[in-house]
Amino acid sequence: MTPATLAASAVIVIALFITVRYAAKCYIRPFRRCRSCQGKGRKPNRLGRGTHDCRRCRATGLRLRIGRHIWNHARALHRTR
């Protein structure tokens, strides 16, 4: 093997490993913490007094991962055909 093909195959293996790892993470834990409220479900008001419910996560503190959202959409498309 030449160094060029070795480097190319290493990049492909690393990219494949990262993809499989993210897919497994989406399968095992489909939800992640909300970035807007840091998983608390509540955000401070602009004036600094009190809090209000987070609109992005609807006060749950969790958001569906992008990969899981894509997976659910692909499954729905497959079911309709």
Mean pLDDT: 94
Mind describing the biggest β-sheet? 2 strands, antiparallel
What's the helix-strand series?
Answer: HEEEEH
Query: How many structural domains?
Result: 1
Q: Hey, roughly how much beta strand do the residues contain?
A: 5-15%
Low-confidence stretches: none
Could you say which overall geometry the principal axes of the C-alpha atoms support? elongated
The gyration radius over C-alpha positions equals 20 Å
Helix count equals 2
Spatial sequence of strands, sheet with the most strands: 1-4
Instruction: Tell me the span between the first and last alpha carbons.
Output: 45 Å
The beta-strand count equals 4
Helical content (DSSP H or I, runs of 4+): 40-55%
- Helix/strand/pairing category: alpha+beta
Oligomerization: single chain
